[in-house]
Design goal:
179 residues, 4-stranded antiparallel sheet, 8 strands, Alpha-Beta Plaits, alpha+beta, 36% helix
């Protein structure tokens, strides 16, 4: 089964540095197959017979053992990733893929947290939570967005990592063997 493995917070600034060739090697040595990475921010597509939660645990343990880093890992199967792209609840307004983010969560958010996110949205921003994903449109970018700051923080009450729409769709193409 093909999986998208998403590492939180690596290669952003001087902390949590992992070279992608070394990450591919470590994951391959851990028993994963067809390990491929996309850009430097911890996007991996690989094959494993393990269930997604087991892939996440083994990936986290491998990263801790090899690199000495405690990194949260979120995993989606290729089918789950395809469903994320298919849903695309903001397709009508999110016209710039670099300003359109999907936050992948370990589990669904509490309803109160979703309400808090909606309240943080600036004029023009949109946020939609569906299952274990939060779709967020930031037409003015993320730099000054209170919504983005909350999505990127650890205060959601659940492990999460975000990717822009270009990365999400590229990972799906990789998972489907088209990239």
């Amino acid at each position: 089964m093909r999986h998208a493995v998403l590492l939180r917070g690596i290669n952003l600034g001087p902390r949590n540095r992992i070279a992608m060739p070394e990450l591919r090697e470590a994951l391959t040595m851990a028993g994963f197959e067809a390990v491929r990475t996309y850009v430097q921010s911890g996007n991996v597509v690989l094959d494993s017979d393990l269930e997604p939660k087991a892939v996440a645990r083994l990936s986290e343990r491998t990263i801790a053992d090899r690199f000495g880093l405690s990194i949260d890992v979120i995993v989606r199967t290729a089918g789950e990733l395809a469903a994320v792209v298919q849903r695309n609840p903001l397709r009508e307004i999110a016209v710039e893929p670099k300003r359109y983010q999907v936050s992948f969560l370990q589990r669904e958010l509490e309803p109160g947290t979703v309400d808090e996110l909606m309240a943080l949205a600036a004029p023009g921003e949109r946020v939609v939570a569906i299952g274990r994903e939060v779709y967020a449109w930031h037409p003015a970018g993320v730099a000054r967005s209170k919504l983005w700051a909350r999505l990127a923080s650890r205060s959601l009450g659940v492990g999460a990592t975000s990717r822009n729409w270009t990365t999400v769709t590229t990972l799906l193409e990789m998972a489907n063997g088209r990239a």
